[in-house]
Specification:
This protein has 355 residues and is of the alpha/beta class. The protein has 8 helices and 15 strands.
Amino acid sequence: MSSAPPPPPTTAQLQCTQLGGPFQTVPVPTPTPAPDEILIRQRVIALNLIDLKQRDLGILVPSWPRVLGIEGAGVVEAVGSAVSSLAPGDPVLRPGDEVLAWEGGGAAAVAWGGAFQERVLVPARFVARRPRNVSLVEAASLPIAFVTAVCGLVHTLRIPLPSLPFLSPAGSAPSSILILGGSSATGAAAIQLLHAAYPSLPILATSSPAHHPRLLALGASSVLDYHSPSVVADLQAASPRAAGVDAILDCVSAGASQTDVCEVLDPEGGRRYAAVLTGVPVPVPAGVTKLDVNAWDVVGMRGGGELIPALTRLVEGGEYRVPLPVRVVGRGLEELPGVLDQVRGVSGEKVVVVL
């Protein structure tokens, strides 16, 4: 069998030139992977709210110009000398293999990553083979929601997930939990991870009514309309014995506007409020323990380097599903700046650009 052709000498980056934009496409030398890295030819770029916040607010951007974007999927073009397989039992990784990756290095002061480009370098520990039962478009939507949900559940709330034994936190399952923003990708990921681990756990969630059937199918016990003026009372009534829930995971900074949501916490329970960092402050009342959820915690987590490669096993084994429907909104790097703002208005779906 003939070997794959080498990558071309140059490749294209979509650089955000300054705070607020604009973007410009710039040819740059094609990078060579370090021993522990993989060079991926991007085929799908998933869009996220953090992309807008980096462009408009400069969050985690050390300097301009910058290549934004935190997740995608594509084809392996080159493999570092120390990389063999991605997960135990995997075949040897070769050029031409289809993979998904957390490409968020562009969101911080590290040399790798940045999804908005034709070719991206990523450490092998943040790459997984495309599961055979999902498309490459669907695969691109998997990494960030999964990592953020796991960080929130395992690292922040200390809830063990038996499907991820290498993480093994010193903690226990809550007696009940509320997921705010259940129809976000992270919320839908958290619901199914919790249900798979603890099938009898009461899992309450909020979303608009259109998404209730999907969240119930993923494992939520009750889903309430966050638009309802009685949502706090409705959540309280839906909780076990109407006593409230043991913990809250806020995936969308819902508590910033629904300031009385902590009334749903059981006064006899753990009273923990874990909030995904979005750049929007979420106040909590006295007596409630506020905890921050940050996907970057995966870097320092015990077993964190095994997390993304495990996605292949979980999805192929039916233990984890693509959290949300995926919609293609653009084709090519040149279309990406014009469709990026669509992220702001999506609900219950993930949007991507294909290259």
